[in-house]
Design goal:
flat; alpha+beta
Length: 141
């Protein structure tokens, strides 16, 4: 049975009192199993992503938002056998994002999810970088 692949995860404050967050998940149908973690610290999200790396999973999206004086994160993962590897960042400045994008493109990585947020350090980005497995030539009948 197809499981939705989350393509975006976007936090936004609850408009009725700002006491909680709502996380909006925008997905497309796909194969595989999906997991998510929300309202977590950067350390918990990094651990979640690294633990699931060995299970043949890759991030769909990562987001962050200031809430009650803290920065909280959310992330989604799902199985995807076309991905050879992934990297992620939780706090890149705009200049650091551009530099990293240029640097790791030569390694075959490209950004698939970019979510911005404001922090005391200014605008920051959460980024998911993917590297796909080499395509196999089609088998002749």
């Amino acid at each position: 049975m197809p499981v939705p692949k989350v393509l975006q995860i976007r936090p936004h404050p609850n408009v009725t009192g700002q006491n909680s967050l709502h996380w909006a998940f925008h997905s497309a149908a796909g194969e595989g199993r999906g997991f998510q973690v929300i309202d977590a610290s950067a350390e918990v999200v990094a651990e979640f992503l690294d633990e699931n790396r060995g299970r043949g999973m890759r991030p769909g999206a990562i987001g962050a938002v200031p809430h009650k004086g803290n920065l909280v994160y959310g992330a989604t993962m799902f199985t995807d056998e076309t991905v050879a590897d992934f990297k992620f960042d939780l706090s890149l400045s705009p200049d650091d994002f551009q530099k990293k994008a240029n640097d790791i493109a030569a390694e075959g990585f490209y950004p698939v999810s970019l979510t911005g947020y404001e922090s005391e350090k200014g605008t920051r980005f959460c980024v998911v970088w993917l590297k796909e497995k080499p395509k196999q030539p089609a088998k002749k009948p």
